[in-house]
Design brief:
This protein is of the alpha+beta class and 257 residues long. Helices cover 43% and strands 13% of the residues. A 5-stranded antiparallel sheet has the order 1-2-3-5-4. The chain has a two-stranded antiparallel sheet with strand order 6-9. A two-stranded antiparallel ribbon has the order 7-8. Helix 2 (82-99) packs parallel to helix 4, helix 3 crosses helix 5 (201-224) and helix 5 packs antiparallel against helix 7 (234-248). The mean pLDDT is 93. GO terms for molecular function: transferase activity.
């Protein structure tokens, strides 16, 4: 059987065999598969379906057909389109609503290291442009559920705000001008409105830098443990730290107007 290497995948590269995705499994993969089956049973088709494991112990997932960013630079236009941002907000809301009632298996294990509890949802935790699958101007869904796990709605939504609005600092280190700040504020409002976020938007401001720093800490912890993929992501960790500082400096009106 011919294996076609799929683009992207910073930590767990995937291959396509006869229309099925095969990826290296982790100890938390069975729990993630339980989430994907839960979503499938609810009629949600904007996520891969869990298909078990192959004879090499790799997880098997249905293939979401469409376009991904892969290694392209610059990113395609859909990554910054308002119409896509609205779909992302709606996708996140649907996943959160459906997983609020998820009962994990008795041996639950998550990448994030916490357990499911009252008031939590299962967040994708990395619903970012580089994990999106699109067909034209339509969001097909998100792949790479490896780091999915229990969190508040705000925690998962905050990372998507960082990467889609974006609230992350420019990668070239250039300053963000007033016009760009107004545009980011508008796009943040668009994302939260599409989600139907009813919480305190001023309070949401605190979740974003916390989420950015947590992601940076995870990358550095894995790199310190010798993980080669995480080591390659150390510049991303530095970007997230800078993003957290920049977000904390935003005026209150950025979040509420």
């Amino acid at each position: 059987m011919r294996e076609e290497v799929l683009p992207g995948g910073n930590t767990t590269g995937a291959v396509l065999i006869d229309g099925v995705v095969h990826k290296r499994a982790s100890r938390w993969t069975p729990t993630v598969h339980a989430v994907l089956r839960h979503l499938e049973d609810a009629g949600f088709d904007a996520a891969p379906r869990a298909l078990g494991f192959d004879d090499q112990g790799r997880e098997m997932l249905s293939y979401l057909p469409g376009e991904t960013i892969g290694g392209r630079e610059p990113w395609p236009g859909w990554a910054t389109a308002d119409t896509m941002l609205v779909q992302v907000g709606r996708w996140l809301r649907r996943v959160h609503d459906l997983t609020a009632g998820f009962t994990p298996p008795s041996d639950e294990c998550w990448f994030v290291g916490r357990t499911m509890g009252p008031g939590l949802v299962v967040g994708h935790q990395d619903a970012s442009p580089y994990n999106a699958v699109v067909d034209g101007d339509r969001l097909v869904g998100f792949c790479d559920w490896d780091t999915a796990g229990p969190s508040s709605r705000e925690w998962d939504l905050a990372f998507s705000a960082l990467t889609w609005v974006p609230l992350a600092a420019p990668r070239d280190g250039s300053p963000v001008g007033d016009d760009d700040l107004r545009e980011r504020s508008r796009r943040l409002r668009l994302l939260l409105d599409a989600y139907g976020y009813a919480g305190d938007r001023g309070g949401f401001a605190a979740a974003v830098p916390q989420r950015a720093r947590r992601q940076a800490d995870v990358i550095r912890h894995l790199a310190d443990a010798g993980d080669g993929a995480a080591t390659a992501l150390l510049p991303v960790a530095a970007l997230l730290e800078r993003s957290a500082t920049d977000v904390e400096a935003l005026p209150a009106t950025f979040w509420t107007h």
